[in-house]
Amino acid sequence: MLCHQSRSRSDPDGRRVTTITAEVTSGGVAATTRRRLAVSPGTLGIAAATGLVLLQAVETLAGRHGLGTTLAAGWAQLVAPGFVALVLAAVMCERVWPAERRPLLSRGHVQDASYFLLYVLAIAPFMTLLSVGSAVVLGGHARWLAAPWTAGWPRWSVVVATLVAMDLCNWLAHWGDHRIGALWRIHALHHSQEELSVLTSFRAHPLMHTNGFLLATVPVLALTGARPLAPVLITVYVCLGTLPHTNVRWSYGPLGRVLVSPAYHRLHHCVEGRQEANLGVVLTVWDVLAGRARFPLRGSVPCPTGLAGRTVPVEQADGRPRPVRLLARQLAQPFSAG
Ligand SMILES: [Zn+2]
Ligand SMILES: [Zn+2]
Asked: What is the 242 CA–ligand 1 centroid distance (Å)?
């Protein structure tokens, strides 16, 4: 006979934890097997919401026979040759001017390279579907968003206003990642890297993108209406958001007061201190307005990065490195309530 018992409690961070205990008994004989399944309802909820958004995208695109075309166009934007060349150039710069000197094939680099491969093969198409699905969901349920009030604006001003507003939405999503327990469980993987490099940009759980895409779709619908942004601008935005993980000391000089630089973003990844500072993706202005900006001091020593207490399994822990197996464990970890 199989019996299930479900119990809920709060963990020390106030997150709800549901424990399901399955007991198997056979004919009254003392043969009882106990299996403890502890799942995070928050992560399951985010996964379910993500699944619904993806389903909307697939249904919409399949109906118009545009699924393959849209995925190919999205892939060309998110894995553009110029973008890949920029990542490779950043890797070269890390070899010449490293903030922290380490071997090219250090455990952290190899692990993040696995995430880069995952991004190219699966996450870029996933992001394309999230983008389409978010537009379908919000466009269908909040038609009032698509106001025609920018119809008379010059084209360039619509583009600039949309990119700036998208950056604000990404800041809000990042703020939520750090403030809301269920979102932090997913975001923590990105912060677990102890050997920061440009490839750390890709060390992210797929579910980390859902709230950002949903939020960033709001200004796209509200400002651009039916006029799509030029793909090259999306690629430029992705480039600017990727470079700050580069393992160099660059602070971009006076431009670094406005644009997020590697030195600025490294402070967000510091193992010690306030990780809720420097949440900006491309612009620093949102951190300045929220009182969360910490600008790097000239000549300061780069801080160690990672998570205190290693709450996410990391490649720097003892044992033989197995990147693929660890990647699977890291992606599964937010679902476990333990
Ligand atoms: Zn963060
Ligand atoms: Zn980061």
From this structure: 13
